[in-house]
Specification:
The two termini are about 40 Å apart. Strands 5, 6, 7, 9, 11, 12 and 13 form a seven-stranded mixed beta sheet that branches. The chain has a two-stranded antiparallel sheet with strand order 1-2. With about 375 residues, the chain is α+β, with helices and mostly antiparallel strands. The chain is built from 13 helices and 13 strands. The chain binds iron/sulfur cluster (SF4). Iron/sulfur cluster binds near residues 240, 315, 327 and 336.
């Protein structure tokens, strides 16, 4: 990618790229650009791996499926006909979803739909993508991720080659193209990525309900399998309070809420840079009372840094910032009670020490 076409720093580019094209963090796919032969690499998806991809040194393929969650779905049209990707994005719009066309590396097109961070149910996203493909008369088109969830037999799923492989970008391959401008590549791919609209899981729920969509892999089975689900939303292993706060924003105690959310995102495996992206999107939903302002980006950064700096064991379940969002169905409630009872019996109250908040809590 030509650095002169963007003023973004490498850090910003990596955060943006991660927010769209990462999934499993300990394995990735690649291929030999000379032979096209692909294989799996069981190593962390480090910044170096992603940079080498963007610089055109070694392609990176993403395993999108993490448990039962994904950050994106992609329909893989493997012929050159431009009709199908254009039909797909047109039909997606009918459902209120923005989809984006990528010219694939050799032949055909990938059409991507991005989920609101940190991710959405893969089953629901796949179901809606399948409905769109059915609508346009291409039901057998492959969808990535190819499955609704990982299980004992499916440890990784299938990888899809990520866009923006540096060696192919100058040839107009692996780039996003503008459907309103003759499918020409967007002149600035980073600005384009920054502006993509992400689908909220609530919208997927509405589409599924209104259109009575059902999957061969059971949606309810997926939801039930999540350890945190209390209301049908299993957002990357987040407990119900965090899901609720992230989805709706908060009205009070923004800094403490931010710190707690950062801790949950960390425990769910989100890298710090992506947690900050998610928390900035969360801040836009906050509705503080009239004499308070919305938490700033630098305050979010500070809270996230604190959360990621040390190991904190507790979840702050008794904090005023968190309690209003607590769900009686959360398994941690039981754990908290059990721990409290144990502490009372043994006189050991280390939970509060381990969980003490390092930043000033109120605003
Ligand atoms: S028990 Fe704790 S972690 Fe679970 S929802 Fe309630 S506040 Fe959140």
């Amino acid at each position: 990618m030509n650095d002169s076409q963007t003023s973004k720093t490498t850090f910003q580019k990596l955060a943006l790229f991660r927010s769209c094209f990462t999934g499993l963090g300990h394995v990735y796919g690649t291929y030999d650009p000379k032979t096209g032969r692909s294989h799996q690499v069981k190593q962390p998806v480090s910044d170096k791996v992603l940079l080498h991809h963007l610089q055109g040194r070694q392609p990176y393929g993403v395993y999108l499926l993490v448990g039962d969650q994904t950050r994106a779905v992609a329909a893989d049209f493997d012929d050159e006909d431009t009709l199908w990707p254009l039909e797909f994005i047109h039909q997606a719009r009918q459902y209120g979803i923005k989809a984006y066309i990528e010219r694939s590396k050799r032949k055909g097109w990938h059409v991507w739909i991005f989920a609101e961070l940190p991710g959405a149910s893969a089953a629901k996203a796949r179901l809606v993508a399948k409905a769109i493909l059915d609508d346009i008369g291409k039901p057998s088109t492959e969808i990535f991720p190819k499955r609704d969830r990982l299980n004992d037999r499916t440890s990784y799923g299938n990888f899809i080659n990520a866009p923006l492989f540096g060696m192919l970008v100058p040839r107009g391959r692996t780039v996003f193209v503008d459907p309103d401008n003759g499918l020409r590549p967007y002149p600035n791919q980073w600005d384009f990525l920054e502006g993509v609209q992400r689908v909220r899981e609530h919208l997927l729920d509405e589409i599924i309900e209104i259109n009575n969509l059902t999957s061969s892999e059971s949606i309810s089975g997926v939801v039930e399998s999540s350890p945190w689900s209390s209301d049908g939303h299993s957002t990357f292993g987040l407990p119900p309070c965090a899901q609720e706060m992230l989805a709706k924003g908060v009205t009070e105690h923004q800094r403490v809420a931010c710190f707690r959310l950062a801790l949950h995102l960390k425990k769910a495996g989100l890298p710090q840079d992506l947690a900050i992206v998610s928390l900035n999107a969360w801040a836009d939903k906050n509705r503080p009372s009239s004499d308070k302002r919305i938490i700033t980006a630098s305050e979010i950064h500070k809270q996230a840094e604190s959360a990621y700096a040390k190991d904190y064991r507790g979840c702050g379940c008794e904090e005023a910032a968190v309690m209003p969002y607590c769900s009686p169905n959360c398994p941690l409630k039981c754990n908290t009670k059990a721990r409290t009872e144990t502490s009372t019996r043994t006189g050991n109250s280390d939970r509060h020490d381990a969980d003490s908040h390092p930043s000033s809590p109120q605003q």
